[in-house]
Amino acid sequence: MIKQSLIVAGLLLGLSACQSTQQVQIEDLAIEGTWHIEVANGQPVIDYSPAQLTFEAEGKLTGNNSCNNFFGSYVLSGQSLQLQPAGSTMKACVDALMEQEQHVMQAMPDITQGKLSKGKLLLQDADNKTRLVLSKK
């Protein structure tokens, strides 16, 4: 009887060990701060362009899209990232900066994830295509 009880207890202990799941905590990317935009939609930005994104606390997003200032929000969970531009100023600039501005603004809503690689922040779409390449200011 004691032998059977020990066997049953051992089996129950073994089964309970099999049921435990390991929870992996994925840390959020360290993106807070100002990042200079180097590439937008595959196009390198113009030298000395003011294009930048600033990730502030509590999901606030601001920046310059090459010609105009913009504001909005972002949602970050691990490496999952969504950029939600909400509005911008409406200045006119030289054609090259206006075209670059369109590349930046078109890329932002498509971002679904970010990753850090060699000091750069790569913002990618759902197809893992890098849409924005940023460097820390």
Commentary on this structure:
- This protein has 137 residues and is of the alpha+beta class.
- It has helices at 2-19, 95-107, and strands at 33-40, 43-44, 52-55, 60-64, 69-77, 80-88, 113-117, 120-124, 130-136.
- Strands 1, 2, 3, 4, 5, 6, 7, 8 and 9 form a 9-stranded antiparallel sheet that branches.
- The longest helix is centred in the N-terminal third of the chain and has 18 residues, at 2-19.
- The radius of gyration is 23 Å and the shape is elongated.
- The mean pLDDT is 88.
What's the arrangement of secondary structure elements?
Elements: H1 2-19, E1 33-40, E2 43-44, E3 52-55, E4 60-64, E5 69-77, E6 80-88, H2 95-107, E7 113-117, E8 120-124, E9 130-136
Antiparallel strand pairs: 1-2, 1-3, 1-9, 3-4, 4-5, 5-6, 7-8, 8-9
Key traits:
about 140 residues; alpha+beta; nine-stranded antiparallel β-sheet; 9 strands; about 40% strand
Query: What's the overall geometry?
Result: elongated
Summed up, the helix count is 2
**Parts with pLDDT < 50 across at least 5 consecutive residues:** none
**Termini distance?**
73 Å
* Gyration radius, rounded: 23 Å
Number of strands: 9
Structural class: alpha+beta
In helices, the fraction of residues equals 10-25%
Mean pLDDT: 88
* Biggest pleated-sheet summary: 9 strands, antiparallel
Task: Encode the helix/strand succession as letters.
Answer: HEEEEEEHEEE
**Amount of beta strand:** 35-45%
